[in-house]
Amino acid sequence: MTESVGARGVALVTGGSRGIGAGAAVALAEDGWDVAVSYRTQADEAAEVVAACEALGRRAVAVQADVAEVNDIERLFETVTNELGRIGAVINNAGIVSPAGRVADYDLARLDRVFRINTIGAFLVAGAAVRRMSTARGGKGGVIVNVSSRGAVLGSANEYVDYASSKAAVDTLTIGLANEVASEGIRVVGIRPGLIETDIHEEGRLERIGTTPPLGRPGKVEEVAALIAFLASDRASYMTGSLVDVAGGR
Ligand code: NAD
User: Fold this and answer.
1) Best substitution site from 12, 35, 93 to test ligand 1's pocket, by max atoms within 8 Å of Cβ?
2) pTM of the full predicted structure?
3) What CATH number has the domain bearing residue 210?
4) Residue pLDDT, tens place only, 60-80
């Protein structure tokens, strides 16, 4: 195993091929982390993110992995550790949203998909991180940043109550896990973005609800990425179990 040469260590960003994850990868690289990005299908985009991190003087790798598959997650952590060294930060970011719809019209396939990726995927990634970071298991500690959504507390009526609920469970994961592993050298924090300009949204959603927060506009990827980099760093060393909104006042 090679030890990290990154000033801060190695950060793994799930769903790092585009959007908030890609922005977080670059912000972490700017902050001195070596960076691993995982992607499900977008190899070319992930390679561009790796190149952007390398251009900042950091080591970076891209690894294909579906966060809804246990075997993929284990392979992801092993590959990153072998190629870059011990993982010190995990950004639990991979996620999907549902199309606009009302609860009464949801079918099982829709519910299964959004909870499987957003909730179960987040649990599986967090568990894999803890098994490697915990000082009680021979690890050296670390930080987990869970990417939730402001929708978790707003409910997101008429848009995606299922998605909002899948993220509310991630908030509970953040609070509970933070308490479980605080004495094992691991901080766990969550962020709740409002509507952010990425390709996750179906056509028309940004126009429909993007201007409704007090700040009157959707957020930018960089505005979320900066928060993630801060929370992953030692500058946030007294924060754990925290849920931080980055939602334009919504
Ligand atoms: P995005 O669609 O641009 O990026 C999502 C990333 O997750 C992609 O890289 C995608 O490949 C990956 N991904 C999806 N399913 C996956 C799976 N099963 N396995 C591995 N990777 C998978 O979306 P984004 O807006 O950047 O969203 C990133 C995170 O932020 C998500 O968890 C999302 O719920 C959350 N979020 C986004 C917004 C927003 O308005 N954009 C608001 C609140 C929360």
Assistant:
1) 93
2) 0.97
3) 3.40.50.720
4) 999 999 999 999 999 999 999
Q: For residue 246, which amino acid is it?
A: V
- Domain total for the chain? 1
Beta strands in the chain (DSSP E): 9-13, 33-39, 60-64, 87-92, 142-147, 186-193, 243-246
Is 121 part of any domain?
Answer: yes
| Assigned domain for 3 exists | no
Task: Give tens-digit pLDDT for 161-216.
Answer: 999 999 999 999 999 999 999 999 999 999 999 999 999 999 998 988 888 899 99
Parent domain of 62: 10-246
The rounded distance, in Å, linking the Cα atoms of 53 and 56 is: 5
CA of 136 from ligand 1 middle (Å) equals 32
Ligand 1 surroundings by CB, under 6 angstroms: 14-15, 17-21, 39-40, 42, 66-68, 93-97, 117, 121, 147, 149, 193, 195-196, 198-200
Q: How is residue 144 written in tokens?
A: 């987990």
Q: Which helix (H) or strand (E) holds 230?
A: helix 221-232
Question: Is 5 within a domain?
Answer: no
In this structure, what is the dihedral angle of CA atoms 212, 156, 165, 116, given to the nearest 10 degrees? -90
